[in-house]
Amino acid sequence: MKVAVTARGPGLDDAVDPRFGRCPYFVIVETDTMTAETVENPNAALGGGAGIQSAQAMADQGARAVLTGNCGPNAHRTLQAAEIEVFVGASGTVREAVESYRNGTLNAATSPNVGSHFGSGGGGGMGRGRGRGGM
């Protein structure tokens, strides 16, 4: 079965990226043979809709499950509509995440585990942005 793993790099020994829609890579792994192909995520820098677009891309790749750290509501809804199971809390390397999936130690997510726009880098600073620049 094909599973898509969110990854920081293009290989089986690269780290799982905790973000679904904005991960740099998806490593698509055939669980029976551990053969993999990598898809660079063109949606990582989108201003909005990255989760939905990434979910559609995984459906186009034929993934039957997604292994990731976190999945927001729009992506989760789109993955469910495509009948792709979502497993959150994946960590370690891509290879380790797939092994956890194969061993049954990852739990299926029946709902999103983060809010919209998680991981989009939308600043969390506490400043008011009105500095005087040394005046």
TrEMBL record:
Where does the sequence pass through the membrane? none
Dinitrogenase iron-molybdenum cofactor biosynthesis domain location, by residue?
13-102
> Positions of the region Disordered?
111-135
SUPFAM superfamilies with a match to the protein in the record:
Nitrogenase accessory factor-like (SSF53146)
Residue ranges under compositional bias (Gly residues)?
118-135
Q: Which PANTHER family match?
A: DINITROGENASE IRON-MOLYBDENUM COFACTOR PROTEIN-RELATED, IRON-MOLYBDENUM PROTEIN
- Name of this chain's protein: Dinitrogenase iron-molybdenum cofactor
Organism per entry: Kiritimatiella glycovorans
